[in-house]
Amino acid sequence: xxxxxxxxxxxxxxxxxxxxxxxxxxxxxxxxxxxxxxxxxxxxxxxxxxxxxxxxxxxxxxxxxxxxxxxxxxxxxxxxxxxxxxxxxxxxxxxxxxxxxxxxxxxxxxxxxxxxxxxxxxxxxxxxxxxxxxxxxxxxxxxxxxxxxxxxxxxxxxxxxxxxxxxxxxxxxxxxxxxxxxxxxxxxxxxxxxxxxxxxxxxxxxxxxxxxxxxxxxxxxxxxxxxxxxxxxxxxxxxxxxxxxxxxxxxxxxxxxxxxxxxxxxxxxxxxxxxxxxxxxxxxxxxxxxxxxxxxxxxxxxxxxxxxxxxxxxxxxxxxxxxxxxxxxxxxxxxxxxxxxxxxxxxxxxxxxxxxxxxxxxxxxxxxxxxxxxxxxxxxxxxxxxxxxxxxxxxxxxxxxxxxxxxxxxxxxxxxxxxxxxxxxxxxxxxxxxxxxxxxxxxxxxxxxxxxxxxxxxxxxxxxxxxxxxxxxxxxxxxxxxxxxxxxxxx
Length: 491
Ligand SMILES: Nc1ncnc2c1ncn2[C@@H]1O[C@H](COP(=O)(O)OP(=O)(O)OP(=O)(O)O)[C@@H](O)[C@H]1O
Ligand SMILES: [Mg+2]
Prior knowledge:
Elements: E1 3-12, E2 15-25, E3 30-35, H1 41-48, E4 56-61, E5 64-65, H2 71-76, E6 79-82, H3 94-99, H4 112-126, H5 141-154, E7 159-163, H6 171-186, E8 190-194, H7 198-204, E9 207-212, E10 215-221, H8 227-235, E11 253-262, E12 266-274, E13 278-283, H9 289-296, E14 303-308, E15 311-312, H10 318-323, E16 326-329, H11 333-337, H12 344-349, H13 353-356, H14 361-378, H15 395-408, E17 413-417, H16 425-440, E18 444-448, H17 452-458, E19 461-466, E20 469-475, H18 481-489
Parallel strand pairs: 3-8, 3-9, 6-7, 7-8, 13-18, 13-19, 16-17, 17-18
Antiparallel strand pairs: 1-2, 1-4, 4-5, 9-10, 11-12, 11-14, 14-15, 19-20
The structure holds adenosine-5'-triphosphate (ATP) and magnesium ion (MG).
């Protein structure tokens, strides 16, 4: 055995995050771990990586007792974790990030060009086509994720943990990553793969462990799990169909975009979204999808025209966009979505704060709490209370807070960037239902998603972007995975 974890337990104030967890991993094996948001997956990996000390339990690595006191100890032992929350230094270049904490002592005298060349080979391995000199700050979230993976590859690891590595990747990058996993496996590296995309888990894992409420429910060889079994073990309650049919009357054009252009990012985007309609935007990473949403929201400079219900609106700033009835759920929840030290309640209430502050402090507090409680209930946010700091929630639950906040503003135009990134199957159903309700009440919904199943299942129409332009628009009656990919990839 490469790794054995025995009877690991860990509590945080108000939560038993891990109880008596056993886990084993062989060399050259890929072990999947699945479970709902807050089940304890990341906490278990942090114990393994020396980021958190367990309250109880033992570990063995290569048959010897292993008790890392800090992340450095785990790294030195050959354990590399690609964390769910990205940990790159934004103001350094890609190449520098690749070597950070990993540099040969005499960095000063090292040939920069040689470093760049080596960095370029690593980037090629993960399919990222940008210069190693580029600052990480200038990369999209999915590109940053690829840099994290490249950095893990640069270290001589015997065990690699990937905590939701594919959450933001599109099909093409996902293929590249899986080829890399196969290579590592062949070289005898043990891999722990955490994902909410069950089809991926079925594809690359040898065994799958299900966690729930801090316990291991069961581990089986992948072939012995069926998807319904796996979901049942994860959520412990019946799940309705993923995409309930919507019987919505599609109304008049609500959002109308004409010749929207943001220099160097995308150009000449013209399209409409009608009341009651859910329109998806597909395309490869870097096609400009996120930028279009940001421009509509006033978070990026742009030219062109935006009309809502026929009236031109001016959205030079997000504040103007919000008062025009536009809400955005951003892709980067850590950077733009949440204020980490603030409580769940304050984060949920954040964007309605200005609207309700006129009612006075007391009312504001009561209202905030009510809104927060509502969101926590409706979205099954797993938290000991609304007054807990958002930084203490699991990754998926943080994402739900961002969504809950946007929903609480009751917008007419709803812009969603990767709304279910990192969200478990059970909660996805809730979110799809909420999106359907928004459209059902006459809202216009525009969704950027790299999850093909989601795009096809959720949307009435799919716009496909390719290198900053609209490559095509497909109606529900004519779209399928191949057509979307075709439009996205043609050059
Ligand atoms: N630093 C912390 N302080 C307090 N509670 C924490 C802390 N870290 C995690 N928790 C809690 O421990 C539980 C398990 O969280 P964990 O991050 O391990 O979940 P997860 O299975 O990785 O979920 P996800 O799928 O959302 O990433 C959650 O209830 C979470 O709120
Ligand atoms: Mg996690």
